[in-house]
Amino acid sequence: MSKPRSEAATSACPCGSGLAYDDCCGRYHAGAPAPDAEALMRSRYCAYVLDNEPYVIATWHRTTRPARLDLAGGATTRWLGLEVRRHVVTGEHTALVEFIARFKTGGRARRLHETSRFVREDGRWFYIDGELRDRGAPA
Q1: What 3 state SS string does 85-138 have?
Q2: What is the C-alpha to C-alpha distance for residues 87 and 65, in angstroms, rounded to an integer?
Q3: What is the pLDDT along the chain (139 residues), one digit of tens a residue?
Q4: Residue 66 sits in a domain of what CATH number?
Q5: Contact 94/102 with Cβ under 8 angstroms?
């Protein structure tokens, strides 16, 4: 069951920043551009937590973007937390973000460890792809 908007807006952001949702990922979900690749990655994680498929798709680079996802189909997945390991600017318009996302599915705790590539075009950051280190490994 989703929270009423006013409660969600003042709740801690799911990305783990410690800020309220509206002061963190909520502003990017509302259309503001993320200032860097780490902020975009955090907002994408938050979108997965909130089943915000349109945002995940819109922030995926056009060259690697899937036609659609099925986030609602993952109703049995419960996201448990995000740890950003590193954010590296690799060029004027490129960056890497290494993270671990913890989740629970089918009663088992898991983790997704990935180093993601991002590119900035026309003032907006986009997710390109990622190298998985542990996909669904036990947490």
Answers
A1: EEEEEEECCEEEEEEEEEEEECCEEEEEEEEEEEEEECCEEEEEEEEEEEEEEE
A2: 22
A3: 344 445 566 799 999 999 999 999 999 999 999 999 999 999 999 999 999 999 999 999 999 999 888 776 556 789 999 999 999 999 999 999 999 999 998 889 999 999 999 999 999 999 999 999 866 666 5
A4: 3.10.450.50
A5: no
Q: What is the residue range of 115's domain?
A: 5-138
CA distance 98 to 69: 22
Token digits of residue 40: 């975009």
Look at the alpha carbons of 7, 9, 10, 16 in this order and tell me if their dihedral is positive or negative.
positive
The phi, psi pair for 18, rounded to 5°, reads: 95, -10
pTM above 0.85, yes or no: yes
| Cβ neighbours for 130, distance < 8 A, ≥ 6 positions apart | 114, 115, 116, 117
Q: Rounded CA gap, 67 and 56, in Å?
A: 11
The torsion angles phi and psi of 28, rounded to 5 degrees, stand at: -75, -40
